[in-house]
Amino acid sequence: xxxxxxxxxxxxxxxxxxxxxxxxxxxxxxxxxxxxxxxxxxxxxxxxxxxxxxxxxxxxxxxxxxxx
Length: 68
What we know:
The protein has two helices and two strands. The protein has helices at 3-13, 52-67; strands spanning 31-34, 40-44. The radius of gyration is 15 Å and the shape is extended.
């Protein structure tokens, strides 16, 4: 497994959807819960967009090391 294969599989998964697959995110995002009154609670802060490719490659390397 490598980053290019990961992006290829992502592109295939999204081939029949309106969303575009096969690329890393271009902007930062947060995962939040919204309450009925409009308030937000931070649930998860993903890695910054600029570091996503690095962390994907690191995750693949760590997985490969763990299973070999």
